[in-house]
Amino acid sequence: MSTQLPESETETETESDEQAPSAPVQQQRRMERKRARAEEEEREAVEEETELDGETYTLKVFRYDPEVEGKKRPRFDEFVVPYHKGMTVLDALMYARDHYDSSLTFRHSCRQAICGSDAMFVNGRQRLCCKTQLSDLTDPVRVEPLPHQEVVKDLVVDMQHFYDQMDAVEPFFQTNDLPSGLEEQHQTRENREKVKMSTRCIWCGACMSSCNIAAGDNEYLGPAAINKAYRFAMDEREGEELKQHRLEILEQEHGVWRCQTQFSCTEVCPKDIPLTEHIQELKREAVKNNLKFW
Amino acid sequence: MHEHDVVVVGAGGAGMRAAIAANEEGADVALVSKLHPVRSHTGAAEGGINAALRDGDSWEDHAYDTMKGSDYLGDAPAVETLCQDSPKETIQLEHWGMAFSRDDDGRVSQRPFGGLSFPRTTYAGAETGHHLLHTMYEQVVKRGIRVYEEHYVMQLAVTDHEDPEARRCHGVVAYDIKTGRINGFVANDGVVIATGGPGQMYDHTTNAVANTGDGAAMAYRAGVPLQDMEFVQFHPTTLPSTGVLISEGVRGEGGILYNSEGERFMFERGYANNVGELASRDVVARAEQTEANEGRGFENDSVMLDMRHLGEERIIDRLENILHLAEDFEGVNALEEPMPVKPGQHYEMGGIETDENGETCIEGLYAVGECACVSVHGANRLGGNALPELIVFGARAGRHAATRQPETAQIQTGPSAKSEDGHVDTPVTPGEIDAGSEDVVADGGALLDAPAPEVVERTVARENARVEELMERDGVNHAEIRADLQQSMTRNVNVFRNEAGLKQALRDIRAAREGYRDVAVSDPSRTYNTDLLHTIETRNLIDLAEALTLSALAREEFRGAHWREEYQFRDDEQWLKHTQVAWNDGRPDLYYTPVILEGEGGEYEPKERSY
Ligand SMILES: Cc1cc2nc3c(=O)[nH]c(=O)nc-3n(C[C@H](O)[C@H](O)[C@H](O)COP(=O)(O)OP(=O)(O)OC[C@H]3O[C@@H](n4cnc5c(N)ncnc54)[C@H](O)[C@@H]3O)c2cc1C
Ligand code: SF4
Ligand code: FES
Q: Would you say the pTM of this structure is higher than 0.90?
């Protein structure tokens, strides 16, 4: 592939941005040249690839960068990528970035549905890109950042609120009586089975982003955090006293009672965690516990 | 500028264990990581953690298996420490609430794994690493340890003495990915590098995209030798289209491998007459590759791994995750069909040379986890031995960095421990092109013996200048360079190696270096600039790939994972020694140090490895 930059450029005046450390005008020019080159290369690559076997997918990708003049206004960019069997949305995004526009920004790492970093809004639904086959989607494929979260840049959202809600449920094992030395705490197979699904959460944030209640109530703990609390509340090793303490956290005004059983979280969870069921079960525990309804 | 007692770089299993240990010693700890901690690649580990927990098992047996598995290139004091401390550290995880699989009596389950004489692999389904990582992060949150997530560490702030062993590490410099600011971190007591493996040197790997060996490359350029880099583990069971790993647990539970002629080749073709599929990884990977090379593979040069006969109940109970992986990434329903598998890059046995306390030859600089080489895996790592390494040596390094207790190490590190110089004929000159750093000896080098903040400050200034330049100029995109490098490594420095291929790889690495001279970052924004990050990472991959290939070319024998076409035997006479490659004034320097076979109960006698 050619690495020459076409010398075409357009001058755009930009106000100076205090975030941007180097001359904005120069950046702008580089952007323009970059885009021209990208278009050129995309055309070449597509021609090349379509000659080979013809099959392509078109991505319509959300773009936004608060720092770069040309990208401050959100828009969609189109990338046509050559398709091969087994290709995922993440593969396609990486192809677009590595061949057409290296400023295309998204989180990803493991490529195997375990790091939780590439949850996005793909064809109108929260999905893990690495786990989503292009062939399961209708072309063109629209890729947007997770809704209801602030966009940092392109497909990257700010996860801080999600993390804060996680922190709010005391997300760590607590117990008052640990065996000493090399002795293990015992746990029945049944109990491990009971918490098993809840321990699978990879913090992708898809559930939270799909939840109408969470979108309307910023303080609602949300499905992932409640599920995290479930994981400990139902673990017999923590003991009754701590379970009580955990239920109190969950019964607060913005806790389990906010859930209106819409199941959207359960539908999108890439780890198949029965989130709504877990929330319902905690409500039942709370009733047994004879505590407040909000 | 931030200031802490201990700065841990990387928040996988190793980094978080180090941070917790340092915190327990009362140190003010910063955990600096380019990913949020729960995104670290430790989460992908599947099979389990080896620990001698049961009657009938002992740490001595674990140590014996590990020394044998290492093809006698492990250092006995490190191996014995691993095996002695692993039960305690594994139970510690249980006490922190980790969701281990359970036996009927409520104790944690253990299963058989390749190369082990006892079923001592403790596990949580086929997602042990995920549970370990999250359990550890929970403890980090509980203790209120300061986490700087999405901070990319780009340089170590090290003094500039001529002799690496006289240098001192005062901190690190990191790019705050979200804001684009470049910050200094002063570490009063120590810096612990825990940045994980360099699997991205290869294009078919089980490793995450973030596994680019940053920490190892930074330590190397600061003057710490890289040890035994030629020993790269190729896992025998990865999915052909993506490199996603199918846990050794499948074979541990009884899964079988067969070729396109329907033969259970591990037995029928005599690769491992006693244990078949459960032979150690290097043996199985070579067997598969041989089958493929001799035309008995399936498309994509794969063989088949079959677990259907285990029954749905057992599969769901112990290997459920495998069903999902096979389905999502290869489109195979493993309850009804066998899975295609082939060898893929998986683990780097070598890395930053450290002693049993995790300390390097640079004062105040520690390394743990996959980026380090304390020498427990030698020439070949046994499955289930990396996770205990993270927790055992993570804890030791964190503690040591925080307390600076003068506990003397049995393993000597640094150039002064050398036994002989190495020689190797290279087709191109390895190393930096214009030596780059004229005024400093170490690449991380800053200032001879100045107060810590000044050393860090100056490193910050240098990094700012470097980034400015990368962003201002026009040139080549790093992705092209990286792709060429990965392809050459996969073609030439894989399961099977020969002199011509290794030399070709060195030429390609040189070409990558030359190409990198013109590399430029196109994204003009400071906010979340992944183009910039990947560009810096690519240089790290080039340096590590070169160290690896040089080491491999020099080692003229066949040991563990290092197979050489021209040398089909293990040569204990000549090669019972560790390879060291040290960055010396812009050039890699090759030398050797002795292996320590003397353990607590006597010497581990090198024997023929047979399975
Ligand atoms: C698929 C797979 C399965 C495995 N299964 C097993 C198993 O069953 N049993 C076993 O014992 N071993 C297993 N292993 C090996 C083992 O999991 C790894 O060796 C181990 O998890 C590595 O841990 P780590 O803490 O060293 O690094 P990682 O978990 O990779 O963490 C590295 C950390 O460093 C950070 N980082 C990297 N570069 C920078 C930088 N420049 N600046 C700041 N931060 C940085 C990252 O953000 C991350 O937090 C497996 C490995 C893989 C890939
Ligand atoms: S519960 Fe499911 S959807 Fe929600 S964060 Fe966890 S893995 Fe993602
Ligand atoms: S890249 Fe890790 S979950 Fe998709």
A: yes
| Nearest CB neighbour to A172, from listed B138, B324, B523 | B138
> Domain holding B251: CATH number?
3.90.700.10
Ramachandran class of B155: left when φ > 0, alpha when ψ lies in -120 to 50, beta otherwise: beta
Shortest distance between the Cα of B367 and any Cα of chain A, in A, equals 22
Distance between CA atoms of B353 and B159, rounded to whole angstroms? 19
Residue position matching structure tokens 């450390």? A21
Any atom of ligand 1 within 6 Å of the Cβ of B41: yes
Cβ A113 under 6 angstroms from ligand 3: yes
> In this complex, which of A114, A116, A235 lies closest to B97 when CB atoms are compared?
A235
Residues contacting B121, CB < 8 A, separation 6+: B47, B48, B49, B50, B110, B111, B112, B113, B249, B252, B383, B384
| Same-domain check for residues B183 and B162 | yes
The CATH number given to whatever domain includes residue A208 is: 1.10.1060.10
Residue B605 tokens read as 């006698």
Q: Are the beta carbons of B180 and A19 separated by less than 8 Å?
A: yes
- Across-strand partners of B55? none
Q: Is there a contact between B53 and A19 if contact means CB atoms under 8 Å apart?
A: no
Any bridge partners for residue A80, and if so which?
A: A58
> Do A73 and A126 belong together in one domain?
yes
Distance between Cα B347 and ligand 1 center (Å): 9
**Alpha-carbon distance B48 to nearest alpha carbon in chain A (angstroms):** 16
- Closest ligand 3 atom to Cα of A115: 2
Residues B81 and B164: their CA atoms lie apart, in Å, by 27
What's the token pair of residue A119? Answer: 């949850």
Between CA A36 and CA A42 the distance in angstroms is 10
For chains A and B, CB pairs below 8 A equal 190
Per-residue pLDDT, A261: 87
Q: Is B32 in the pocket of ligand 1 (CB under 6 A)?
A: yes
Q: Is B281 a catalytic residue?
A: yes
**Nearest alpha carbon to residue B153 among B225, B217, B209:** B217
Q: Give residue A203's pLDDT.
A: 98
Closest to B381 (Cα-Cα) out of B550, B228, B574, B182: B228
* φ/ψ of residue A72, rounded to 5: -65, -35
Which atom of ligand 1 approaches the CA of B385 most closely? 11
Q: How far apart are CA B64 and CA B52, in angstroms?
A: 12
- CB contact (8 A) between residue A156 and residue B528: yes
Written as one letter, the residue type at B5 is D
Q: Provide the domain limits for residue A273.
A: 160-175+187-290
Q: What tens digit of pLDDT does each residue of A47-96 get?
A: 555 554 579 999 999 999 999 888 889 999 999 999 988 899 999 999 99
State how far the Cα of A159 lies from the Cα of B170, in Å rounded to an integer. Answer: 32
Which of A38-47, B489-498, B594-603 comes out lowest in average pLDDT? A38-47
CATH number, residue A147: 3.10.20.30
B37 secondary structure, DSSP code: G
Determine whether the interchain pair B525/A65 forms a contact, defined as Cβ–Cβ distance below 8 Å.
yes
Question: What's the rounded Cα separation, in Å, for the pair B47 and B128?
Answer: 6
Strand partners, A119: A128
Tell me if A205 CB under 6 Å of ligand 2: yes
For chain B, the average pLDDT equals: 94
Do residues B280 and B373 share a domain?
no
Residue A221: closest CA among A262, A253, A197: A253
Q: Distances in Å between the alpha carbon of A111 and those of A92, A222, B92, B107?
A: 12, 26, 30, 33
Is residue B448 packed enough to be buried (19+ CB in 10 Å), middle (13-18) or exposed (0-12)?
middle
